[in-house]
């Protein structure tokens, strides 16, 4: 399955709206533990929801999490249950792969947040001009 075979891409604001409109939708942050601790995490508590934290790739090795699909099932999601799953990473690359893997395993519809939590890099190598935080969506520092 190629990485473009999932339900689609959403901007951070579109992802927020989907989560707000569908109480069964789930936000899955696939960044690493280090990113969650040092960069911050999305906060959907005002929607009455939580965030599932499942590394797509392991820190510090960068190896793909071989237990990703099993970890996804441990959140309470089940293949074929039809619950929307929205994936978030730093910039939208790992979350795209996670959405494709989830779709292949029967979860979803699975969506990718294109700008991620921090967005891509600018000409100076800095992040933060796009993404979940730049869109002004709730987040917190653990």
Assign the CATH topology: Oxidized Rhodanese, domain 1
**How many discrete domains?**
1
End-to-end Cα distance, whole Å, is: 35 Å
The dominant shape is globular
Radius of gyration: 14 Å
Largest sheet: 5 strands, parallel
Question: Regarding CATH, which class?
Answer: Alpha Beta
The stretches of 5 or more residues where confidence is low (pLDDT under 50) are none
**Beta-strand percentage range:** 15-25%
Named CATH architecture: 3-Layer(aba) Sandwich
**Tally of strands:** 7
Structural class: alpha/beta
Mean pLDDT: 94
Instruction: Give helix % range.
Output: 10-25%
The helix/strand series, from N terminus to C terminus, equals EHEHEEHEHEE
What is the number of helical segments per DSSP (H or I, 4+ residues)? 4
3D architecture notes:
The protein starts with 7 loop residues before the first strand and ends with a strand. It is built from 4 helices and 7 strands; from the N terminus they run βαβαββαβαββ. The mean pLDDT is 94. The longest helix has 12 residues, at 93-104. By secondary structure, the protein is of the alpha/beta class. It has a 5-stranded parallel sheet with strand order 1-6-5-2-4. Strands 3-7 form a two-stranded antiparallel sheet. It has one domain (8-137): Oxidized Rhodanese, domain 1 (3-Layer(aba) Sandwich).
